[in-house]
Amino acid sequence: MERYEILKDIGSGNFGVARLVRDRITGELYAVKFIERGNKIGEHVQREIMNHRALKHPNIVLFKEVLLTPSHLAIVMEYAAGGELYTRICKAGKFSEDEARYFYQQLISGISYCHSMQICHRDLKLENTLLDGSTAPRVKICDFGHSKSALHSRPKSAVGTPAYIAPEVLSTKQYDGKIADVWSSGVALYVMLVGAYPFEDPKDPLNIKKIIGILSEFPRNVKISYLKYSWQTPKSE
Predict the structure, then answer these.
(1) Where does ATP bind (predicted)?
(2) Active-site hit among 123, 132, 143, 181
(3) 143 belongs to the catalytic site
(4) Strand locations in the chain, DSSP E?
């Protein structure tokens, strides 16, 4: 890590801590995910590294390199200076149709590319969707800790974030990770437009049984162009 100057902490989680660093030679900024060596470096970390470094797309955080320190494994990645898309939505309350379309087109473009590379993300959410620091922000999908290559086997483990998780992930022994990603992207789009989750009990948000339900009707106070098509079940004649 001698090449990099650590500037500040920019995030933390079960994995460890993420720090903003500067390349002492080029002056470029990078985000570094530090994972403590030992039990935390298991198969999922190996998958994260293998899958992420195989992906090169403008809407995916660019993987740079992996380094070992005496105490940590360090994953060096592109720095997305604009922060989380989730934070932007929280500040705005919700997006207009045009703004939601702008970000969703980029999100689904990145996911489509992952799937073309036979990689499913499996934890797609607005908190894992970053923005670069440009005036017209570009979406950058990050955190491939739960990702899986479809070339090896169909996913079996129920991973993901409750509000975004597809129902088949919980109800079947095997599922299609790509389809589950598409479900999660749809939840993200809904949150962009409505400013709330489609499947969540505010009083009991972590109760999976209450989260997975059927959206009977799109909120009428949200005006978007495709609402001319009815979401209601046609009345029998």
Answers:
(1) 33
(2) 123
(3) no
(4) 4-13, 16-23, 29-36, 63-68, 72-78, 83-84, 119-120, 129-131, 139-141, 148-149
